[in-house]
């Protein structure tokens, strides 16, 4: 500790944060947080910054004292102001935390899985002595309420009670607990995400929702586990006492695109083969499925959201369903798409957690018996792609919640007085197996899919993939798989087998090397989503209209498994926009219209709307 940390803070605040302090004083007490960049403190005095990391509780307390001692030109007393340190040099994952980190200031990176309701927490309890009537305060710093061994502060009385807690005179802050889970993109194959509970107080509470991506800067604390039978345990658990929260919006739009990147993107968009190339860059290790991959390319950019003057909103995200025989690479396609999307979440309908796919309110230990809202996959994938494998196996509750999630793109939780609406603005990519395991090709397809028409009609595109033996195709797939395995084998062996050169690997990789590398594709997609909002040309409108009216007329006279509704028209518009976006065009042309009608037509024909 420097000799006088309060003086150190005063010097720092005066020289570097004076304007911020004046601003805070101006809007106080509505605003109560003074944000301090860690790097500013580090530039000011590296040792003091180090001290802050090592002894955060004392150092931050000193900062609060310093704020109170500043001579402000206005008449405010900033006693409820907080120092919120942001942008620490390093972000930790939950799994990296060790006992050495206890008591230190750390940044934890993750995804908010659950959040309790905001409730008052007592920080200063007013006790009234029932003998002499004197009222005194007892600060409540920990999580356990301290009302034992009190003594009346009236020196003339000095008795040990009884005392009455005066709620009106006591001081409370808003408090909330959240549970942060490691982001899926930080997990290596098969790892289970670990979680850390975080306590947020005062103006930090109530601003975070399940599904948010955050960096929580805080002081890591431990508490002793107890067990009703054995009492106190020697094992401790960790929690994080929040100092500040940074929102991290890693969505497509937020990817950094440099000037050179932008040039490369423009160049790519002028390539007449861009559709081919994007298609070939999606899951290159999977052979075939050109039509599916083309649609997945459209899904990456999707259409864009529209707000109608009457308040209604039309989603832009494209939902795709793949139904097909087992073992034909559906799961592989899903996993690949999740990797391509910065906010991709992969989940299986079978192995849903208690929050399932959507969200739920649970009463668990995080909330000390309070209700907690827990986000499921579709909330966690907000603004990304949610891949649901084995969708046919999910429970009925999830199935019905999906209706809202897919159309309104919100998820409502209403349970035991907890009401919340969470956002789920994601594209859904789902896979399902036929009801009986395999398609019977002599029977109509639709009844063999274990999903309701209402659910099916919410998908923009449904691909039916059957595994029919076809010697030419089979041997092509076999060759493709053998080659990709060989390339994988070479690169696994390379570290210990000096005979294998990079050139061998590169040669072997040619079959599965994507035309556009994933990093660049992600940038391209991000650029398109951020900057391109195409409008329909007259030609495209007319094409869609004619096609749609034709569909409706055909649809009238027979019992269609997937009803033709206005949804298909909206789907066409979305797909058309996506098609224009893929070449960064401001216009959806007749060619775009034809391209997407062809894709939709192929899907409908297979499902049985013809
Ligand atoms: P599904 O989810 O449809 O049951 P999987 O995605 O689990 O099937 O695929 C099973 C395996 O077969 C995977 O390892 C996949 O790579 C391989 N496979 C199936 N079809 C193809 C294909 N067309 N090209 C390359 N690999 C394939
Ligand atoms: Mg599968």
TrEMBL record:
One of its GO terms (molecular function) is single-stranded DNA binding. It comes from the Archaea. The keyword ATP-binding applies. Its EC number is 3.6.4.12. InterPro entries: MCM (IPR031327), MCM_dom (IPR001208), MCM_lid (IPR041562), MCM_N (IPR027925), MCM_OB (IPR033762), NA-bd_OB-fold (IPR012340), P-loop_NTPase (IPR027417), WH-like_DNA-bd_sf (IPR036388). GO terms for biological process: DNA replication. The lineage of its organism: Archaea, Methanobacteriati, Methanobacteriota, Stenosarchaea group, Methanomicrobia. The gene is mcm. The keyword Hydrolase applies. Residues 274-481 form the MCM C-terminal AAA(+) ATPase domain. It is an enzyme of class 3 (hydrolase). This is DNA helicase. Keywords: ATP-binding, DNA replication, DNA-binding, Helicase, Hydrolase, Nucleotide-binding. It comes from Methanothrix soehngenii (strain ATCC 5969 / DSM 3671 / JCM 10134 / NBRC 103675 / OCM 69 / GP-6) (Methanosaeta concilii).
